[in-house]
Amino acid sequence: MSVAEREAADTLARSCDWLAALATQRLYVEQPDLERLGANGRARVLEDFGHHFRALASLDTPLFLAHSSYCYGLFAHRGFPRHWLDDAWRIMRVTVLEQFDDKVSDPVIRLLDQVPKLET
After folding, report:
1. What is the mean pLDDT of residues 1-24?
2. For residue 77, is it within any domain?
3. Which pairs count as long-range contacts for 39-47, CB under 8 Å and 24+ apart, including other chains?
4. 117 domain-assigned
5. pLDDT tens digits for 39-85?
6. H helix intervals, 1-120
7. More confident position, 17 or 116
8. 50 with 95: CB under 8 angstroms?
9. Alpha carbon 95 to chain centroid distance?
């Protein structure tokens, strides 16, 4: 990992909880029907975003792809729609782009772009 990537990873690692809160807020603004899940549902979304951002903050491609694959498998096993995770990656992308300059956001976007897309 380059010095610039290490600095970006460190910045992200220090910001995971904050980013998870921002992403959760954005998701609930975009999808207000999620409020029906109550406080427990919001807490689970916040927790999930925290896990996603911590995996992303590693800027380690195999680790993050393994994390995303695990999440897709878990969601499939539990009968949750795949688009929930696809929405999460999209919201994470927007959140990072809004909050950081290119030195931090570029490696994140490159990593998120590697998550396998659903074939239609």
Report:
1. 93
2. yes
3. 46/20, 46/21, 47/20
4. no
5. 999 999 999 999 999 999 999 999 999 999 999 999 999 998 898 89
6. 3-30, 38-57, 61-78, 82-99, 102-112
7. 17
8. no
9. 9
Confidence grade of residue 120 (pLDDT, cut at 50, 70, 90)? very low
Residue type for position 56: L
Domain limits at 51?
3-112
**Number of folded domains in the chain?**
1
Q: Provide CB contacts within 8 A for 112, sequence distance 6+.
A: 56, 89, 92, 93
Q: Tell me how far apart the alpha carbons of residues 115 and 68 are, in angstroms, rounded to a whole number.
A: 7
Is 38 part of any domain?
yes
Question: pTM score, two decimals?
Answer: 0.89
CA atoms of 17 and 11, how far apart (whole Å): 12
Please tell me the distance from the alpha carbon of residue 120 to that of residue 104, in angstroms, as a whole number. Answer: 32
120 in a domain, yes or no?
A: no
Q: Is the pLDDT of residue 25 over 60?
A: yes
Q: Which amino acid is at 89?
A: W
Phi and psi, residue 2, nearest 5°: -70, 165
